[in-house]
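Long-time lurker. I teach an intro course on protein structure, and each term I like to show students one example going from raw sequence to a predicted 3D structure in C-alpha cell notation. This year I'd like something fresh instead of my usual example. Would anyone be willing to generate the C-alpha cells for the chain below so I can use it in lecture? Attribution to the forum is fine with me.
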Amino acid sequence: MICLDFLTLERVPPSSLPRLPLLTSRLTIADCKPLFQRVDERIKGWEGIHLSFADRVQLIQSVLMALNAYWAMAFILPKGIIRKGRNCYVPSYGRDNRGGYAKVAWSQVCRPKEEGGLGIRNVMALNKALMSRHLWRLITQDRTSIWVKWVITVRLRMHSIWTVSDRVGSWGWRKLLLRPLLLPFIEYRIGNVEFFSIWHDPWHPIGILIQHFPRGPRLMGLSVSDRLCKVIDEGVWHWSVTIDIDCLTILHALPAIHGGADTIFWSLDGGNFSTAGAYTIFSPPGPKVDWSSLLLGQFKTPDIISHFGWLSSGGFLPWTNHGLGMGWEHAFYVEGIRLNLIPIYSSAALLHGNAYE
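-- Reply from a regular --
Happy to contribute to a lecture. Here you go:
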C-alpha cells in the first residue's frame, strides 16, 4: 500500500511507462537505465521521418518530458541524471552530431512561450514541485495517505515536520525537506486550537517560535509540546503576564482567531495546493516579450519563419547583435511585431544545425 501511495517501491505500472526500481538509497544513473533506454527507443523511432520545428517541440513535450515527469513524481532526481536525460533528447530537437556550440541555452528553451521560450518544462523545477506535494501532505497530515501515517509514526515520532532535523536520515528524506522554500506560501488560520503547536508550527507572523525564542517555553511557563488551546480560551488569547522582551515580541503580533477548524492554506491557486503553483516557486516567472505571438500560434507563419524569427528576435544568433551594432538592419513585421533578421544562416542550418544546448 505504501508503494502505491508514494511510488517509491517497485510495482507494475501501465504498459506505456517503464518500471520503477526498488531503492533504499540515492538514485543513480545505473538505476535510470530503463528510462534512458525508453527515451532512446522513442528517438530512434523518429529517425527517417521529416519533423518540423513545431513537431519536434510537441514530441519533446508530450513524449520525452512525460517519461521524465513520471520518474520525477517518484524520485528526487540528482543533477547528473537530469543532465544526462536532457542530453538524450536534445539531439532530436535541434542539434546534430557534428559538434559545435549551442546558440540557445537550455534554460531559455525551458521558459514559457510568453517569455520567449518554447514552453518546455524545466525538469529540475518540476521534480521539486512534485516532491513538494508530498511535503504538503505531511504538513497538512493527510490521514488518507498510508505513507503520511508511516512517516508521522516512524520518521517524525513526536517531532514536527517544521522542526525535525534535516541532517539525519536518508539522502532522499533530507532533499524532501523543502521547508524554507514553501513556508512563505503557507498560511495557518487558527480555529478551534486543537491542531496547531504553539512552538513548532508557523502560525505566528514571526515564524516558528521555538527557532526564534528557544527560551520561550520556560519563560512563559509552558511545555514545548503544548498546543494553542493552552493560551486561547473561548476565542480569546490568554497568555501569562511577562516582562521579557522576547515574550513581549510574541504577544504584540498575535494573529486573529478565525473560529471553526484549524486550517492550513496554500496562498497560491486560491488556497488549494497544486503542482503548477509550486512549479512557479522553483521556476519564477520572468518578463514577457512582445514577439511571443509568433510562438503562440496566433499567426499562420511558415515553420522556418517561426524558427528563424524566434532565434533572431530572442537575440540567440550571434550575428544578430553583432550586425545591428554595425548598423545592419534587416527586419520583417508580423501584425506590427518587428522581427530582426540577419540573412547569414540558411534554412538547413537553422533547422538542423547546432542551435541548442
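Some talking points for your students: The chain is about 40% helix and 5% strand. Confidence is low (pLDDT under 50) at residues 6-17, 320-357.
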